[in-house]
Amino acid sequence: MSETTSAGAPEQTRKRKPFYQDLTFQVLAGVVVGVLVGALAPSVGHHVDFLGDIFIHLIQMVVGLIIFCTVTHGIASVRDLGKVGRIAVKSIVYFEVITTIALVIGLVVVNVLKPGVGMNIDPSTLHAPASAAPAKSEGFDDFLVSLVPTSAVDAFAKGEILQVLVFSVLFACGLAALGEKAQPVLNIVGTVQQSLFWIIKKVMRLAPFAAFGAIAFTVSKYGLSTLLPLGKLVGVFYLIVVLFFVLVLWPVSRFAGVSLWKVMRYFRAELVLVLGTSSSESVFPQLTAKLEKLGVDEPVVGLVLPTAYSFNHDGTCLYFAAVSVFLAQATGTDLSWQAQLGLLFVLLLTSKGGAGVSGSAIAVLALTLAATHTIPVSSIALVLGVHSVLSAAFVFTNIAGNCVATLVVGKWENAIDRVTLHRELDAGYVAA
């Protein structure tokens, strides 16, 4: 036996590392030091953002392959295509319902509290950054076409998660159809997957430095004082996030038979990390491993989690709804309830398929505003100073929402070892 603790052994026998060796503590320490360096030595903080960039690049280097291996091994191992289709349908239905609720919560709260009213900004005095230039508005048919890569290699090279997912599902179904003949290939895929997780385990040692570099750069560039004028928007958005956790994720977790607090504690290292990096891709491999360790069947994790990364952007939907209406209020743009209903439908489309990389939300927001033909795209410049503060919250929400979604679909499919699930959640995650 390679484990010092068997399934039936008391959880008290698990040995925990000293607090200073815990990744959560190290990342938090990196964030605190980053804020201090950015505020007290901005000339230094302005030149350490490469630490965060290197870390995210290292994750992006393998995340496409990890998605491929996870999806392929999970689906092909089942060899039941009917079950795969059932999991996919349940996942999409769940994602659409929850993200719609998130959009409604964001729209309602920002309309009630009106954080942008009274700013009276003239849009003609603003200049949207180049990164916020709106992309060409696409219809639903264009969206469907974009799901299919012209080349599988190109999908991996460009990091197109949706296209990688589509290819992986098709490849896995092909292996499942071959039956026992596919076993040698599955063995290879499983070995590659373990090798990739080894790489991620080593890369994660750099997480505290990445969080330090990202936070130090943000504070040194914008300063703490520049965040104050937009403090009301930040406060309202964080209130919206809290309401989403209380009104949506908490009852949904109860439905799944788990404590939301225990789930968040189990994934605390990943949640803290995304607060510093604002990149959901940086924790995908760890989420996959931990969800399986919780007792969720591999096929459910392999299909639901990668799909959630593209379709279940709970926090991003909260952000798009709140910021869109805030910008309309700040620029004196009249938004009737009919216009906001149209905005809701636009957001349901534009919020899907995001890359999960820090900064991508700005481009999608620009696309959304351009599609409304009412809210000035140039008004995005108003929120650039607090975008990092907002993105930390919405990426945090995305990750928590994706973990809960996987557990919910697992419950629907009776694909969770309940004994393992509660044992792990009660004890808290302890690295092997």
From TrEMBL:
Its main location: membrane. Keywords: Membrane, Transmembrane, Transmembrane helix, Transport. This is C4-dicarboxylate transporter DctA. It comes from Amycolatopsis rhabdoformis. It is found in: Membrane. The lineage of its organism: Bacteria, Bacillati, Actinomycetota, Actinomycetes, Pseudonocardiales. The chain crosses the membrane at residues 23-42, 54-71, 92-113, 161-178, 206-224, 236-261, 343-369, 375-396. It holds the Pfam family SDF. Coiled coil: none annotated. The keyword Transmembrane applies. It is a multi-pass membrane protein.
